[in-house]
Design goal:
By secondary structure, this protein is of the alpha/beta class. It folds into three domains: about 5-100 and about 200-260, Adenylosuccinate Synthetase, subunit A, domain 1 (Adenylosuccinate Synthetase, Chain A, domain 1), CATH 3.40.440.10; about 105-195, Adenylosuccinate Synthetase, subunit A, domain 2 (Orthogonal Bundle), CATH 1.10.300; about 265-420, Adenylosuccinate Synthetase, subunit A, domain 3 (Adenylosuccinate Synthetase, Chain A, domain 3), CATH 3.90.170.10. The chain has helices at about 15-25, 75-90, 105-120, 130-140, 155-175, 180-195, 205-210, 245-250, 285-295, 310-320, 360-365, 390-405; strands spanning about 5-10, 30, 40-45, 50, 65-70, 75, 95-100, 105, 200, 215-220, 260-265, 270, 305, 310, 325-330, 340-350, 350-355, 365-375, 410, 420. The strands form five sheets. The protein has a ten-stranded mixed sheet with strand order 9-7-5-2-10-1-11-15-19-20, sandwiched between helices. Strands 14, 16, 17 and 18 form a four-stranded mixed sheet that branches. Helix 3 (about 105-120) packs across helix 4 and helix 5 crosses helix 6 (about 180-195). The structure holds guanosine-5'-diphosphate, 6-O-phosphoryl inosine monophosphate (IMO) and magnesium ion. The site of magnesium ion (MG) has 6 residues, from loops.
Length: about 425
Amino acid sequence: MPVTVIVGAQWGDEGKGKVIDMLAERADAVVRFSGGDNAGHTVINSQGTFKLHLIPSGVFYPDCTCVIGNGVVVNPDIFVSERDELNSRGVNTDNVYISDRSHLVMPYHILLDGLEEAARGKKSLGTTLRGIGPAFADKVARMGIRAGDLMDRGILRTRLEYVLEYKNQILTKLYGKPAIDIDELYEICCGYAEQLKSNIRETSSLLNDMVDEGKSVILEGAQGALLDTDFGTYPYATSSSPLSAGGCLGAGIGPTRIDNVLGVFKAYCSRVGAGPFPTELLDATGNRIRDLAHEYGTTTGRPRRIGWFDGVGARFSARINGMTGMAITRLDILDSFDEIKVCTAYRLNGDLIQDFPAEPAVLNQCQPVYETLPGWRQSTTGITRLEDLPKQAREFVARLEELAGCTACYVCIGPVREQTIEVRPML
Ligand code: GDP
Ligand code: IMO
Ligand code: MG
């Protein structure tokens, strides 16, 4: 039984939640491995509509073990409210675990995210203001508080005293804000400890044991490849790795144990926050797609920026992820279009380029080269077999496969779990 990493292939919000909820029926465990509650994964199934920020999208199957891996930064308040909401709606969360090695998003991280964004002024990154960047920065700076620290009051108090002394210097001297009181913060953290103690445990051994036993594990990506700290449009990026390799690190499963990498692509592109977006549509077509698809952020409610499918970004994403297959979502959104464009290359200073540039200023100068494909102008909702899709839709899917250099395994034609065409099932 396989280990499958499912990753966002563009700038996030590709429909990972939907695809993972559908595939988790065949999985014994689903593991979030990166990001934090900056993620917003929408799941629509017979139990209702859910927007998950931290809890893995496998939670709707009572026998599926759900792990928030060491690579995730966890805001305990968000976790508890998500867990309580799921419970109140009849979803069992007894099998949800948080790695003791995962770092916590503390109240000062959220404060600092806001202060840093304000200080950037016109150059703000458009973060989700969830404290994610500051929490990952502290992890790497060895100034983090880990979930496991909550389990020993002595260790917790000592860590908090050490970290807060430094954080208070930043808050008071750099930003002119009041200092955080150590006793108050310690009390808050003791409250977290009470609320999370049944969820926190070692998780890497748990997962590797499952793999040893031949169980099927899905590693659930957050964000998307083009937001990766190394390969994304840095500095307009997030602060952890949404790539398949990030799945190994963020779950504690070695690369030799990964069998498949499924990249989730929208049939067009969207982006929230600032940063380059070569195929962005700042016109009526962009507005039409946004309205048809209700493209507003799951976490922040911000309108998403919309653009045509970017073949250059897609190929780059497929390669750096080592994708073995792709899922194409939201094909149905294009049902009413007469013509659909796909970007096949960029034009830069008169040259055609096929590689995704590292520098945002260069990307901003790249002009997309488009190919226009005929639309199918009929509803695809309810179709369950590839051969039943209109010919133009099949040709569109084939062109996306060609551009990404990757085979389509799933094509989604609606937000509901069942609205999926299984072309070449991976699980
Ligand atoms: P994620 O962050 O990658 O999980 O994606 P989001 O949940 O933030 O955004 C994807 C949106 O697309 C959600 O509202 C989903 O319900 C919706 N969605 C996913 N697949 C499809 C599809 O094939 N068709 C339509 N119409 N909506 C879809
Ligand atoms: P899912 O998992 C879309 C974007 C933010 C911002 C940048 C940095 O739902 O696909 P951060 O708060 O991470 O420091 O913000 O990254 N971003 C996302 N965009 N979907 C997400 O997650 C995102 N997570 C972060 O909008 O541009
Ligand atoms: Mg999302």
